[in-house]
Amino acid sequence: MQVLVCGAGQVGFNIARYLAMENNDVTVVDQSPELVRRISDSLDVKGIVGHASHPDVLERAGAGATDIIIAVTQADEVNMMACQVAHSLF
Fold first, then answer.
1. C-alpha separations of 17 from 10, 11, 38, 77, 81 in Å
2. Per the confidence metrics, is the pTM higher than 0.90?
3. Residue 46 φ/ψ, nearest 5 degrees
4. Average pLDDT by consecutive 10-residue portion of the chain (90 residues)?
5. Which of 15, 25, 31, 67 has the fewest CB atoms below 10 angstroms from its CB?
């Protein structure tokens, strides 16, 4: 299954870790290059630096081909917008 996780903090990291261990194809998006680097170096996931609610970032992350999007950034507004944008465009 292809999964897009928006947010590479503690919650996003653990979700990505669990899904990667279950042999899912996981991509993680976060604004912090440091968090994206940490998650990419520690887990078998693809990391994208960018704002999770921007359509071009979602497209780069492969939102059109994902089976599920999980939005767990620190901002509820970003989580809602990321899901709405992905639903509307992809």
1. 10, 10, 12, 24, 24
2. yes
3. -95, 135
4. 97 97 97 96 96 95 95 95 92
5. 67
